[in-house]
């Protein structure tokens, strides 16, 4: 069966939210990979920032898709979605900030046929709203996130890239003696909130950086810390629903063949084996494992190599798009409807 997908980008750049800044291009790379392998698959795209809004509807009418995939959707007004549905074309939205923004997403997803959430534990929330929903985790573009040799500027014992959300502030203040003892790089925004900012300032690049730079810091680190956020740190998850699925950094760090020490999550070891990625539950456990893995180079490198193989096999955007297409092709509602 031929499948035609129309992709509408989020329009979010790295200055909007660094850790998800290049997912538009990564998803497009996945679509392109599928297109090269499947003669019965075609896709078209509309880039919110580059393309003129008035051209969206005519472009869709000309392409005649079987399904429209909207990524994140913050800049696509609801009346546009309703117009698309009047054309009898199913429209799905892939939301990727769950469960942190469930209150916002409750309104955002209303006009859509299908909700795709990156977090497995958020599925029941949308089901209770009466929405058709599937779980599709984030992933990685292995052509972009890859091993490479980097210069001294990017090398560190301990590296963290991300915004200073409350749990990270608390952890890094407590980790200060360890961070100062080792060569540390902390990169992202809002780190001036640290109580120990004056002590750690020399270790901090206090602003977001482009993904191309993030990759270099991952490659230069002995340990990349991946401290996941807490459930309601944006006050946009009033039911305090717990996040279960690892964040996109989990896959990106692994794809750089870098060793990572990550917050344990319920789904983590469904995606990776315990001998591939090290995890921690508490701050004390994190401290212990930083000490342990800094002094066990061979074990670090062996785990990172295994995670690298796993992520390239199972967690690319090509694989995610393939899984989405299988779902769409298996459900009558989303099959060819052009008549």
What does this structure look like?
The chain starts with a strand and ends in a 9-residue tail after the last helix. It has two domains: about 160 residues, Rossmann fold, CATH 3.40.50; about 160 residues, Rossmann fold. Helix content is about 40%, strand content about 15%. The strands form two sheets. Strands 2-1-3-4-5-6 form a six-stranded parallel β-sheet, sandwiched between helices. It has a six-stranded parallel β-sheet with strand order 9-8-7-10-11-12, sandwiched between helices. It has 14 helices and twelve strands. With about 350 residues, the chain is an alpha/beta fold. It is globular, with a radius of gyration of 21 Å. About 45% of the residues are buried. α1 crosses α14. β8, α8 and β9 form a beta-alpha-beta unit.
